[in-house]
Structures
1.
Amino acid sequence: WSGVLPVSWQSMWARPYGTLDAGSPLFNVTWLAVLGNHDFGDDDPFAFCPYAQAQSMATFAGQSYGSAQLNADKNPERPANTDSFWLPDYNYHYAIPEADLEVIAIDTNFQALGGLGGDYRGHTRSFMDCGGPNMVEHFLSGVARAGMDLVLQRARANTASTVVIMQHYPGACPRDEFYGALPVERHGKVHVICTYGHVHEQKCKGKDTRGQCNDILSGGGGGCCAPSISSAGFAAVSLTDDGAFTADVESPSVAMPAGQCHWRRRLQVKDSVKD
C-alpha cells in the first residue's frame, strides 16, 4: 500500500466495513482519518509534495494540495460516496460540543521518511518526482510544525472535558505539550486520550489514575506482518456523564481471540502458452 487508488475506496473501506450498506451498523457513520506512512508513496505521488504538481488539485490560503485522500474541497476528484470519510487536511480538529468532546488529528510522518510507501519500493518514483527525499522531509516537517501549533492552539482554547489526540506513530503523541498549554483554570478538568497505529497490534499502552486506558494502540486487523498474526480489533471509548470516559481495548467484545486470524495465500493462475 503506497497511497490510495481509485479502487481502494470500495475494496479497502466501503466493502469491508459496510459504510455504504444500509444494513450495516457503520452505514453513513463518520470516520475521522489521519494519514500514516502507507498513505504516501508512488500511488499518490503528490501527497507529500503538492508543490511539484503541474497543476494543484486545490489551493487554499496559498497552500497547494495534492493528496487523493483529502476531502473533496481539496481533491475534487474524490468519489462522491466517500463523504463520511473525513480528512479535511493533514492537521485538523473536530469538536462535538454536545458530547463535551474534541478530536485533534495531526500528521507526524516527517519522522518516518524511509517508511513512506512501506519502503523504497513504494516511494522511489515519487521521491524523484518531488525533487528528492530532502524536499519531502522539508514539506512534511512543515506539516508537523503546523500540527504542533494546532495542538497548542486547541489547548489554549480548550472547553472540552475529553480530548482525543490521534496521529499514526507510537511515542509521538504530544499529550504533555497539550497539558502544558492549558489555561490554569482548565488544569485537572481535561482528560486526554492518545490513539495511534502503525504497529499492527491491539493493546492498551498506558492508563490514567482512574485505571482507564488513555494510551491506545489500535493497529489491530491491519494484516501485518508474516509469519506472525497480529491481533485484530478496535477500541471502544464511552463518554460518561461526569465528563470522563471508559475505554475497552482488549476485551473479547472488541478484540478477536488469539488464533482466529490466519494468513490466506492468493493462488495466481496464469494461462499457459503452447507452441
2.
Amino acid sequence: GRYAMDLASTACIQCPESYSTALNASTNISQCICPAGSSYRSQGSSSLCEPCPLGMECSGGHMYGNRSADTTPLLLPAMMSLPEDPFSIYSCAGKDETCPDKRPIAWSESELSLVCPDSQTGPRCSECPRDSYRSGFQCKPCGDDGVVMENLPLLLALALQLFLAFKVYQQQGQNTTAAKIMFFSMLGFLQTLYCMKGLALRWPPALQSYLLDNLDFFGWEGVTIELDIKHECFLGESLISRVLRDLCTPLIPFVDYLIIGGI
C-alpha cells in the first residue's frame, strides 16, 4: 500500500485512501490501484475504491487517477444490473438459464446486450423488444393469431378460477370470514416473497430450493411464463401497461373474494 518516488529513498508514501499496490518496490502513485474485492466509483471530487457488491466479482486493478469507468467488475451468473446504476444488482428472470455466464457491467444502453440475452432489457432482463413476447425465458416474435387466441390460456384460467370460487361459495353457504382472512394473508405473504426473491440476497439454500423457486405462479411474470401468454403483443411495454398488468395478479384473488363473500 506504499510507494517511493526513488528506489534509493528510505521513506515510503502511503497510497490514497482505499488504494493499494500490487507489487513491492512501487515507485509512482500511478501504481496505486483498487485492491481485489473492490471497484472504483467516482463520487464528486473524490475517487474511492468501494467494496464489491453482492452478485459481482471484482478483481481490482483500476489505477488511481484514472477517472474513466472501472471495467474490471463482472456480473456473476444469474445476476444483472442496469446502465443507470451499474452497481445495483438484480437477479435475472430465469436465473442462470437466462444469464449463464460472467459478464461485464453495462455503462450505456448500447452495452446492455452484453448483459441480457435476446435483446431483452429492463430489471432482471425480463422485458422483450417491441413486437415480441416472452415464452419461457426467451423472446419470440408476435404472431398473427389475434388477441383472443394469443391470450386464450389466460382467459381459460380466469374462467376456471371464477367457477371454482363460485362453487366454494355455493357449497359453504355460510360466512367463512376467518378462513378468508387466513387465505388472503397467506396469499399476500407469498406474493411479497415472490417480489423479494428478485433481490440479490443470500437466501438459505433450503428456503431457496423448496420455496422461492416454486413461487413463480404468485406473480404476473410467473403466470405469463407458465401459460405462455403473449400480453406484450397487444399491451406493449409502456409504463402504464406494465403497471396495469402488474396489478392484475393481486386483482384476481380480490375478485374471488367478492364472489366467495357474496358481495
3.
Amino acid sequence: VVRRRVTSKQPEADAAVEICSSQEEPTGQAAAARTEVELSTEAFRASQASQASASSVTAPGPVPAAEPAALEDVAEERWFLALGSKIVGVQHYDGVVSDRESVILRRQPANIYDPNAIQVLNIRGEQIGHVPREMASLLAPVMDRFDDGTGQLRVEGHIPRGSGNMYSIPVRLQIFGQANDASSSAAAPRVLRDLGQRLQRTYCSAARGAVEVLQAPEEGTPVQE
C-alpha cells in the first residue's frame, strides 16, 4: 500500500514526494495482532498436548482375546443290536398301525401282571400291545439302567408287515448305544453284547418263536455307516 504524506503546505513543484510503506513502520495495531496470534498458537499447542496425555492415561488397553472353550467330548452313537420278534396281546388294545410304520417302546413298571412289561405304541401314542414277556424280562432291566435322560440307549421299532394281524404283529427292533470314555457309557457296549447273547437263547411262547438277533461287532457300528 502506497500513500502520500499530506502536509499543510503544498509541496514545491520540484520537491520530491515522500513515499513510505506500512512494512517499514509497523503500526501498534499490527504488532498487537501478531502478539495475539502467537499467544493463540501457544495455547492451542498446550491444549493438544494435554488431551494427548489424558488419552494415554485413560484409554483402555486392548482386551485380551478369550481362549476358546475346550471342546467337550461328544459320545458317538453306535448300532449294536437288531431284534426280530412280535407284538403280543394285540387283541386287547385299540391302537392301529400300518406296515412299514415306526412304533414306540415304553417301559411300564406299574403293570400289575409284569413289572418288566414294555408297551408298544403307535406314533399317535395309542397302545398296540406288548413286547413278549420272555424278551421283556431281559430288555427291561437294560432300558431301566440307561434311562437317565442322556440318550445312552435308544430303541427303535418298525413294523415290516402283518399290521392287520389279530393276535400278534411282527416287529423289528434296533438298539443303539453310546461309546465314549465315560464309565457309565463305556458299560453300554458290554451290557448290549451280553443282552444279544442272552436273547439268542430266548424262546417267546406267546410269540411262538425265538428272538431273531443280529449283532454288531464288539464296539458297535457308527450310525453314519
